[in-house]
Amino acid sequence: MADQTPPKEIVVALKGAHRHYTTPAGVVRALDGVDLEIRQGEFAVLAGPSGSGKSTMLNLIGALDQPTGGEVYIDGVALSSQSKQALAALRRDRIGFVFQSYNLIPVLTVLENVEYVMLLQGVPEATRHQRAKAILAELGLEGMLNRRPVELSGGQQQRVAVARAVVSKPALVLADEPTANLDSQTSAALMDAMMALNQTHATTFICSTHDPDLMARASRLIKLRDGKLDDREEAQG
Amino acid sequence: MKAPMTLKLAWRNVWRNPRRTLITASAIGLGFFMVFILIGFTEGTQRRLEATVTDAWLASGQVHLKGYREAPDVDLLIPDLAATLKVIRATPGVEAASPRVLASGMISMGARSSAVALIGVDFSAERAVTRWGESFSGGDWPQGDGGVMIGEALAARMELEVGGPLNVSMADLKTGEATSIKLKISGLLVTGDPLLDRSAAILSRAALSQGLGIKDAAHQIALRAAPSTFSALKIEGLDVADWRALSPMLEKMSELQAFSMLITLGVVLFILGLGILNTLTMALVERFKEFGILKAIGTTPARLGGLILAEASVLSLVGVTLGLALALPVHWLLSTKGLPMPGTEYGGVIIHRPIYTIITPAPVLYLALGVTLLTLIVAGIIAARAALIRPVEALRHG
Q: From B20, B70, B194, B218, which residue has the greatest number of CB atoms within 10 Å?
């Protein structure tokens, strides 16, 4: 049997990935046999109508959910072979998450939110402070280190979420509709920030979106329809 | 995650809903206060009960001829009393020993009479064994063999008073003939012991022995001694018993009281546990999505469990601090001023003197262990439920 392990420069690989849900109304094929490879440093955007499988795909890639068929690889490692502890460690060390509704920890300050993942990783305090402050400065939040999330605007909270996602230098950042709750000016600023991080740190980004501006700036556009890749419309930016 | 960050997070999470936290912490504090004071009151009652019993008739313990306790008979006298007393008084741990002659008899004054237990004692020896001297409601110890002490209740019933005459009658042990001696009432007692207070007359051993027709004898030797002395004190032909053995009902009452306290402690801790469980369950429901996010970004179930344990601990600590802040001043007040006991009967003993709360390390240790165990159990339940949260489901929530 041929070795199906993807080459090392492939950060994410899906091989015949299915995610079916059984409901009283029948089987819902949220993702239906998807084959996909994402290379290191790509800024990929998942596009498609609601229910096309964008969030489901992000959840599988982020090891937040398991496929009902096929396999998902991160850095060449099959996720189905990993224990819950190992998957938690993978999410902590290799993947950064940016959620649609920010999802910052409300009782922590901006600086503490950004430091949190590094705390889990056991990064020394001085390094944590230095790295968190640097990334927050890069995202224009240097004056807000001690504020709580509730004291920030939506755009500022999403930038903090991006800072939290990238500060520990993950191989991959997954962003689920990061600009959905932002006005156009704030969206543009956030996109600038993510593009800059992608280019300066060679961080791989995979974003799901309905935002045409974000699609236009992607290095790769992946279109989904009814849980399948719409190969005719996949584009290279 | 390092402990300080966990504690910082826990502290802030606990105060997210200050009103709920204060209500729960107050409930914990009130429960802790109640148990703390109950512990002090139980220990204080036990000590007061022991003191009431050992200061009065039973003393720390008693020595009899074997068989006397089972079937008291005036002929069962302790042989060679002087030598026996010498041995007992030389035993380490024995502070004092008082020989007693016991008999049934009658007291009368005019047309009023009453059957009583006659207790003949050496007043100077008895003063060192019992605390009757602190129990006079009127008068004092007799000055010589011509005096007698009776209980205030008996005196009231027979309309007797200090300084008045009293005829004491008994039967000669050899001839069976009735003999009578005329004594003067020197003091009225309120000891808390129904036998002494209602139906006894305490006179000199010499006077009673003369009336009974015996010489230098005793039926009983009352002891003031350390508790450990009784198991070591063994004299051929004699029965040595401490107050617990002499009054098994009181001993049972003490055990029952300790058991009741444990039950109360269990009930209060159970209620506290429900309070903490309720608060943390509400937090789990409200923060379902947040727990999912924490897991999504790499927090392991064990670390999440640590956070929940820290939150439960903070809640318990705040509650216990409130409880201590309330309990310590009240304990100080009750341990110095005491709780008045105007003739409260307890297990057949009437307590007249105040009960002072006493806190000893052991029950407080049980309480601390109980609260700790409770916190661990509640945190464990919530942590187990949090561990089951699937991030993907939590992220869809809310």
A: B218
Contact between B62 and B274 under an 8 Å Cβ cutoff? The reply is no
Characterize B5-31 residue by residue with b for buried, 16 or more Cβ atoms within 10 angstroms of its Cβ, and e for exposed.
Answer: bbeebbebbbeeeeeebeebbbbbbbb
Residue B290 to residue A62, Cβ atoms within 8 A = no
Question: Any chain B CB within 8 A of the CB of A116?
Answer: yes
Decide if A87 touches B, using CB distance below 8 A. no
CB atoms closer than 10 angstroms to residue B226: 14
* Gap between the Cα atoms of B379 and B276, Å rounded: 9
Tell me the pLDDT tens digit for each residue of B237-250.
Answer: 999 999 888 888 87
Quote the CA–CA distance of B145 and B206 in Å, as a whole number: 7
Distance from CA of B296 to the nearest CA of A (A): 7
- Sign of the Cα torsion A12, A15, A21, A26 reads positive
3-class secondary structure, B100: strand
- pLDDT tens sequence across B150-176: 999 999 999 999 999 999 999 988 888
Q: Average model confidence (pLDDT) for chain A? A: 88
What angle, 0 to 180 degrees and rounded to 10, lies between the N-to-C axes of helices A154-166 and A184-201? Answer: 10
By percentage, how much of chain B surpasses pLDDT 70? 98
Enter the DSSP assignment of B345.
E
| Cβ-defined contact of B293 to A108 (cutoff 8 Å) | no
* pTM > 0.80: yes or no: no
Per the structure block, which two tokens stand in for B392? 């993907």
**Up-side HSE of residue A111: CA atoms within 13 Å toward CB?**
17
B272 token code pair: 């506290």
Dihedral sign from CA coordinates of B363, B364, B365, B370 = positive
3-state helix, strand and coil shares in percent for chain A, rounded to the nearest 5: 40, 30, 30
- CA-based nearest distance A107→chain B, Å: 6
Collapsing DSSP to helix, strand or coil, B66 comes out as coil
Closest residue of chain A to B13, computed from CA coordinates? A107
Query: Which chain B residue has the Cα nearest residue A148?
Result: B12
Q: Residue B203 has what DSSP assignment?
A: E
pLDDT value of position B282: 84
What's the whole-number mean pLDDT along residues B304-316? 88
Identify all chain B residues contacting A119, using CB atoms and an 8 Å cutoff: 1-2, 5
In angstroms, the CA A52 to CA A36 distance is: 15
DSSP strands (E only) in B162-243: 165-171, 178-189, 200-204, 220-225, 238-242
Residue A235, pLDDT score = 46
With CB atoms and an 8 Å threshold, state whether A117 touches B300. Answer: no
Q: Is A86 on the interface with B (CB under 8 A)?
A: no
Q: Which residues of A touch B12 (CB under 8 A)?
A: 107-108
Give, in degrees to the nearest 5, the angle at Cα A32 between A27 and A33.
140
What SS3 class is residue B357?
Answer: coil
pLDDT at B349 over 70: yes
Cβ neighbourhood burial of A143 (10 Å; 0-12, 13-18, 19+): exposed
Positive or negative torsion for Cα B141, B147, B151, B157? negative
In chain A, what residues touch B13 (CB-CB under 8 Å)? 107
How far does chain B reach from its first CA to its final CA, in angstroms?
Answer: 27
**A-chain residues near B1 (CB < 8 A):** 119-120
